[in-house]
Write a structure and sequence with these properties.
This protein is an alpha/beta fold and 329 residues long. It is 26% helix and 17% strand. Helix 3 links the parallel strand 3 and strand 4.
Amino acid sequence: MLNNPLITDAFGRRFPYLRLSLTDVCNFSCSYCLPDGYQKTKGDCFMSADEIRRLVTAFAALGIWKIRLTGGEPTVRKDFVEIANIISTIPGIKKLAVTTNGYKLPERAASYAAAGISAINISIDSLQPQKFKDITGHDRLEEVLQGVDACFDAGIKNIKINTVLLKGINDCELDDLFNFVANKRISLRFIELMRTIDNHDYFNKHHLSGTAVTNRLQELGWQEIPRSDGAGPAVEFTHPQSVGNIGVIAPYSKDFCKTCNRLRVSAKGDLQLCLFGEGGNSLRHLLQDDNQQHELEDAILSLMQFKPLSHFLHQGNSGTRAHLASIGG
């Protein structure tokens, strides 16, 4: 592992963490992301397993040591386990994680662990079955909760729950969600709803600042804990009477981008320099042969000089991001 990754931007930030989308396809229809479900578009040709191997090999050579597989829903790919196996054995990769909606997780958790996945983030936006169904379009809360237990049984020790904070929908469940991790070694993270091209009206109606969670945590005696190396953007809190932790991801907070340490590559091979940027930079033409690795590495390092200091969400500018299923958040 390189303690000081070679990948750096013009502002001196270093990047040990890559979020890699495997597909834009999602089998859920969450109200805040894909309320009408996934709509196939022309040119939906996602990277092959070999292209992904070449991509990750190059990033690992530049000091990336943490990979998170995202989507869409990454596990809808029939070769998902094969891809995980490939990535987990690439020299330099120390941590392989996945973000999933938990579909069929009870029966699949063991295969994920065997493929080298050591960390998993599971989306649970409500602990109330009907509300979960209303948000996701699927009556699968019990299955997803069973999947959490299956991950523990499979030996996956790093388990996180992702909950999108929705005003008027699940903000009344804060204390219940805090209590959910009281006896479980889980980090539950509240994610502030982000504005995209497709969700303006929904955002205006349901956006709630992450400070609502932070204030409630502080009222209940939770204490902020230091950020670990290679960690994502969550500010985490601990409580002496809770086994699990609570995190808050608040992209509208001051200096949110100051500690940015992650890059994103789309399922079609585009390097996304910012989640809410003005489009990606294609690397696909450099993923066709193993002999292109040095050229690929040079391209990545060159493009990093164009990474912006911050997003422009505060100005109402979400770039070209139509919805988060297209890059995995």
